[in-house]
From TrEMBL:
The keyword Iron-sulfur does not apply. Residues 2-69 form the RNA-binding S4 domain. One of its GO terms (molecular function) is rRNA pseudouridine synthase activity. It comes from Haloplasma contractile SSD-17B. This is Pseudouridine synthase. It comes from the Bacteria.
């Protein structure tokens, strides 16, 4: 017997955390009956469905996409505006598995985004306990002095949440356009976190790109294109999400 949310996650529907919300929202049925109890356990003989679609296990797949601007890191447009979804790029290229993004990038943010149908894999990568680093390149309005970036290194309040200490450095300045390109490394993933961090020190983000997710980048991949993760990359990410950032230094 397995917990219902785990069965849904292992089937590649979504992460375990989101599966729990689906259950609470009444979107899950067991043997035809709506189940809203998170502690519910099911066996292999039970028929589980989400949004009236039967849950069936499928081979686990793992991808990295160079997310372009102007698409949602989601499996559906919650606002019903029929905007482009990041999964559309993979579906249109023939990926048939029920994949979903590992975390989210804002609609106008570009760069590295992982996708999978392995809910446990996604959930462990996103858990802040294991401090999986994400590296961003932010084009900000204005040219901050070194001391003005110090608060980011110590952690800043972004509205009811204090961020963990970040790594930050100025990559390039553009005096002509009064802007700077800054690299920021964080392991959290709060809503609009990077933008809110820079706003807190008075330097709003004009353009944002995720350059790396742990050690994964999108060099050689044009915006909208993707590639499967290599087996050794998946293995490293699994170990990283289990043992924390020190794993790669061993």
């Amino acid at each position: 017997m397995e917990r219902l949310q785990k069965v849904i996650a292992q089937a590649g529907i979504t992460s375990r955390r989101k599966a729990e919300q689906m259950i609470v929202d009444g979107r899950v049925r067991v043997n035809g009956k709506v189940v809203k109890e998170l502690g519910t356990k099911v066996s292999s003989k039970d028929v589980v469905s989400v949004d009236e679609v039967k849950v069936e296990s499928e081979e686990k797949v793992y991808f990295v996409i160079n997310k372009p601007s102007g698409c949602l890191s989601a499996n559906r447009d919650e606002e019903g505006k029929d905007r482009t979804l990041v999964i559309d790029y993979l579906k249109n290229a023939g990926v048939k598995e029920r994949i979903f993004p590992v975390g989210r990038l804002d609609y106008d943010t570009t760069g590295v985004l992982l996708l999978t149908n392995d809910g446990d894999f996604a959930n462990s990568l996103m858990h802040p306990r294991y401090e999986v680093n994400k590296t961003y390149l932010a084009r900000v309005k204005g040219i901050p002095q070194k001391h003005e970036l110090t608060p980011l290194k110590k952690g800043v309040d972004i509205g009811g949440f204090k961020t963990a200490p970040a790594k930050v450095k100025v990559v390039r300045v553009d005096k002509k356009h009064n802007s700077a390109l800054i690299e920021l490394v964080i392991h959290e993933g709060k809503y609009h976190q990077v933008k809110r961090m820079f706003e807190s020190i008075g330097y709003p983000v004009k353009k944002l790109r995720r350059d790396r997710y742990a050690f994964i980048d999108v060099q050689g991949i044009t915006p909208g294109d993707f590639r499967p993760l290599k087996p050794h990359e998946v293995k490293q990410l699994v170990h990283l999400s289990t043992h924390g950032p020190d794993y790669l230094n061993r």
